[in-house]
Known about the structure:
SPOC-like_C_dom_sf; extended; alpha+beta; DNA_bd_Ku70/Ku80; DNA repair
Amino acid sequence: xxxxxxxxxxxxxxxxxxxxxxxxxxxxxxxxxxxxxxxxxxxxxxxxxxxxxxxxxxxxxxxxxxxxxxxxxxxxxxxxxxxxxxxxxxxxxxxxxxxxxxxxxxxxxxxxxxxxxxxxxxxxxxxxxxxxxxxxxxxxxxxxxxxxxxxxxxxxxxxxxxxxxxxxxxxxxxxxxxxxxxxxxxxxxxxxxxxxxxxxxxxxxxxxxxxxxxxxxxxxxxxxxxxxxxxxxxxxxxxxxxxxxxxxxxxxxxxxxxxxxxxxxxxxxxxxxxxxxxxxxxxxxxxxxxxxxxxxxxx
Length: 299
């Protein structure tokens, strides 16, 4: 098995203690199914090309520069060396600025996570920081230049080591007010609330990532396989949302207090079918004479 490649190497420093560390990607999308863009007419791959928006001429890489739009159609052009000079200088050091309670940072600020491992020497200091934070139940806030940007990093004890998560800046996190401004002003209480609590309690469990499958990847893989084999997949029926007027009934069905409507319809249909069969038997001509003996044909 090939050893993972570090995304970044440097030092971590808390107080006057410093030791070498390395960052390794904690989650990767490299195993996901990837598509190429194909020319439908020829079956050939399409090549991406940058063109001038006015002339339509292709622009080679060495002719491309960064530009900031100051008004419609007008840009401040930045040369590559100017952009490079503006990037903060990195001394490859994660400087711990504070230790905070582990649950103090809202999850909405989390960006990407990396395993923070000791690099070569410094194992003792690494364990000291890890065990100290674990005992105090705190996380560390640190800053450094990562991938050409000054980043704030949250460092927490994780398994046998530490995990470092880059954090979004405050201006990057949008307010939730607009997302929830159309929430209906309703007070849920009584039977509906009790049923909801009951359903929640019966569904309590523990998080196990192995139990959750990537349905999209599985569906795409099955689609590719079906196309290769020349067959089509059946269309899935769209899931209908519960209507507000049916919410209480849906809660009762979820709690097992009443049978689902479709089950009731099926049972009613089965009873109706049995009733029709019984009526048909009752109206059919009798094959036996009175007294239960078979009738004889006239000779």
